[in-house]
Amino acid sequence: MATIHIRNQPVEIDVEAELREFNWTRPRWTSDKLLAASPFRYDQTPSFFVRLEPYGDYPAGTWSDSGAYDSEWASGGLVKLLSFLRNETYGETEEYLLNAYGYSQDSTDIKLISPRLKVQRARQPLAEAELNGFTADYIYLESRGISAEVQAEAGVLYDAKSRAAVIPWRDANGRLRSVKFRTVYGKLFWYHRGATPIRELVFGIELAKHKTAILCEAEIDAMSWRQAGYAAIAIGGASFSEVQADIIKRSTIEELVIATDNDNAGVKLRKQVEELLTGYVRIRQAYIDAEFKDANEALCKRGVGALQSAFEKSESVGGLKVKIR
Questions:
Q1: Which domains does the chain have, with CATH numbers?
Q2: Is the CB of residue 234 less than 8 Å from the CB of residue 154?
Q3: Could you tell me the pTM of the whole model?
Q4: pLDDT tier, 110 (very low <50, low <70, confident <90, very high otherwise)
């Protein structure tokens, strides 16, 4: 365990355990470092490292990417790295770590912050005009096996200025709630400032009009399943919230096929979804072949047949489930 300061509070975190939740390319674990290919770009060389233990003025969890495209992503701390790996905002990852580990029990330097009372206002949808200026350019995701038709259905656009795919997130009524930007030259992403947090949304729920739907982590994986002919939704990361569970409960979905990434975080996510939705929908588990990280990699390397095979082999969880409305 190592002490990491989060929101000015010292927290004892198992850095190595958190990092081992995710698949790494060409990893080498030593007593004090993880060396691997960079998770931020398409890299096959071990040009990235994370400190597992503090070193001098550098706390555990600090990292460096020697081949970074952008100075902002050349180095950073544990929260920034995990927010990327978990596909969350920085603040959401802080909340995850605080909930998972709590505050340090031994520290005498804990500062008590007086609560500030404020009126909780319902979050408003974004104006559709926020998508103005972006173009219907589908080349990037077409290179990843997703057709222009599937992208158009999802509302995917392109931001030429930042060289990023633009992926809208909507609520069940089709109102724009958030926008994700994902660079086409690497794996970096960010969300529209001031939008509804992803943990309160389900990607593609406005299109999920069928009784059976695939649930996965990333939007690109959901679109990969759609390419294979299935209704699919995504939760945007490796954790499943009660708000997201409620959105699915209120939908027309009666059978949910869980198809998460092939890593430890994906295994945990499967259990979370089961715990929150058992009794509300019938649940099946679908597993992509172990040689692939996720649905999109399977689609790119093996075609739609790899996903269709995983669906056909999906396994029921538990007995009869009755959807409660």
A1: 2-101 (3.90.580.10), 128-316 (3.40.1360.10)
A2: no
A3: 0.80
A4: very low
